[in-house]
Design brief:
2 copies of one chain form a homodimer.
Chain A: E1 3-6, E2 13-16, H1 24-28, E3 54-57, E4 68-74, E5 88-91, E6 94-98, E7 102-107, H2 121-139, E8 146-153, E9 165-171, H3 176-192, H4 196-207, E10 211-214, E11 218-221, E12 232-236, H5 248-269, E13 274-279, E14 294-299, E15 314-316, H6 320-329
Antiparallel strand pairs in A: 1-2, 1-6, 3-4, 4-7, 5-6, 7-9, 8-9, 8-13, 10-11, 11-12, 12-14, 13-14
Helix pairs in contact in A: 2-5, 5-6
């Protein structure tokens, strides 16, 4: 079983995948991303994945057969295991916990070569609906404290399969970055009695220089202190702590802004690899006055993006104002 | 002038290099690392770098001419600029600061094809001496609060030139990661009245399963909650808050353990790209009872290392016990 281990200095939990333990030789030759070959996410290969936990499919078709538009399955090589209790234990001065959690894959479309930003808005909304439905379901498991939704596009961003997909990991701990966001936004709220993200949105709308896409209910911006070139955030304009409370209209509005944002990024940067991460409230904290859910998109522009000094110290060679302007000005 | 900008939620400072502002097209085609071609760090090209600020050279040779063994020059494309006052300013709700700092390059050897782990221990010690001397000198500038020493090896780890070199960045702020380490180790000290790093060393020596190299005065270990496969730390065994107080004997002992650690990593992983980062006390804090300087080495094993979810949430597929064992067992 995988282990969760806590850094004794920083308090950061890390998943140590003890079972699939990669040997040094596994890292030496890394295959390039290949087209073609067998794909377990394509129609007809439904039996090559664990049985589906959710699908939106044509009426009359059976689970784990073709006919689906979006399909969610447990990850065949999960980072955490679903069975078992959470056992906390010490190991001398160190702290560890059994690696209990869920790891699911959202297969976003039957079309192997599809690209999220070129799908119809309705289909993007359907993918978001699957994410939402799975988050709500996983929140029902009392062992979990945070459900992480993310999407890696491209080999350089960590995607091991090219068929469009995103992932969900249900965790028995709250990730460090989110803990910090909660603490920071709570502190701001204590001082200002306003949500820091609401204030960010107000200022961005006022100056508009870092706005990438503005819809009626959602906005995308290049953040003021962007870590990476073309880092872009998508936020609901109205205060809202939890993604999973979204209604059908808002989901459609979000899908439209997300699609346009990714389209602009794809044109500006020629379909870059990227990581997309949902930041939402922890399980059981739906009504926070100080937290505001949002999506962070970080293109991996080789050598520059991901160029973190391991010290939390980032150098961003592209001012976010310039990145936003490029993305606004590209022709779609 | 570059800007330092503060994330309003997390309080993290980021350097925004407004001047060299990379355009999207700069990211589209990334050249592969090439052998050959012009190298500004080789003998005879001393006039292609800014004038040296330090060198160890043959008696009778002049500055900025051949004859040096180690040479330190200002970075020709600095992330921060050395001239100017630190001006703090608001921009609506946001905080920014003028990007004042120093950015220097330690050219580690005249030999373009040399590799740190294969240099004589004496030469590794000489490089460490240059780092130490520059840190002490930069600490004299009252504008700086932290001097960051680091080394990127290989294109995938962010090195833009292959000639062996390391870098120093003097910062007017303390990097977030270090602030967190200081806070975490202070908290531990408050509870235990012992340095957390001293306790880590004691436990690692006791169990020995995560020890990579043990010398008389220094040790290298795969940390218990390693974020990345083969992440390795080098620490002084005796409590010591600041790297720059090291004496000649200790420097030699450190060079020997560092060289052997990197050799073992290079054999186990076939000369991987890596980032090496010195963690030491902030300027003016040389006597901290709770902090313990150390070096962190993170091999960049494509797709796996650097695979950070942007959420402070890491999955490490190689248990540190296994990584340490591999490194211990390789033949040098």
């Amino acid at each position: 079983m995988p282990q969760l281990r806590k850094d004794p200095v920083l308090g950061r939990w890390v998943i140590i995948a003890t079972e699939r333990g990669k040997r040094p030789t596994d890292f030496v030759h890394i295959p390039e991303e290949r087209r073609g070959g067998f794909c377990p996410f394509c129609y007809g290969n439904e039996d090559k994945t664990p049985p589906e936990v959710l699908s939106y499919r044509d009426p009359g078709t059976k689970p784990d057969t073709p006919g689906w538009q979006v399909r969610v399955v447990p990850n065949k090589f999960p980072a955490l295991t679903i069975e078992g209790e959470i056992n906390r234990a010490g190991e001398g001065m160190y702290d560890k916990m059994s690696g209990v959690g869920a790891h699911e894959v959202i297969i976003e479309t039957p079309d192997h070569d599809a690209e999220l930003s070129r799908m119809p808005v309705e289909h993007v909304a359907l993918i978001l609906k699957a994410a939402e439905q799975r988050i709500v379901d996983l929140q029902g498991d009392t062992r979990f404290r945070y459900i992480q939704f993310f999407r890696n596009r491209g080999y350089a961003a960590g995607a091991s399969l090219e068929h469009p997909h995103s992932q969900l990991i249900a965790l028995p701990v709250i990730p460090k970055r989110l803990t910090e966001e909660l603490a920071g936004s709570k502190k701001y709220y204590g001082y200002k009695e306003r949500c820091v993200f609401c204030d960010i949105i107000a200022q961005e709308l006022w100056t508009s220089e870092r706005v990438v896409v503005e819809g009626d209910a959602f906005i995308s911006i290049a953040p003021f202190a962007a870590r990476f070139p073309f880092e872009t955030w998508v936020l609901p304009k109205k205060h809202d702590p939890s993604f999973e409370d979204i209604d059908a209209d808002s989901r459609f509005a979000l899908a439209a802004v997300l699609k346009e944002t990714l389209s602009r990024m794809n044109v500006a940067l020629s379909d870059p690899p990227y990581n997309l991460i949902l930041h939402t409230s922890p399980v059981g904290e739906r009504d926070l006055k100080y937290y505001h859910w949002h999506i962070e998109i970080m293109p991996k522009l080789t050598k520059v993006a991901g160029f973190e000094w391991g010290s939390g110290f980032y150098i961003n060679p592209t001012p976010p104002e310039e990145a936003a302007r490029y993305m606004r000005e590209v022709e779609l």
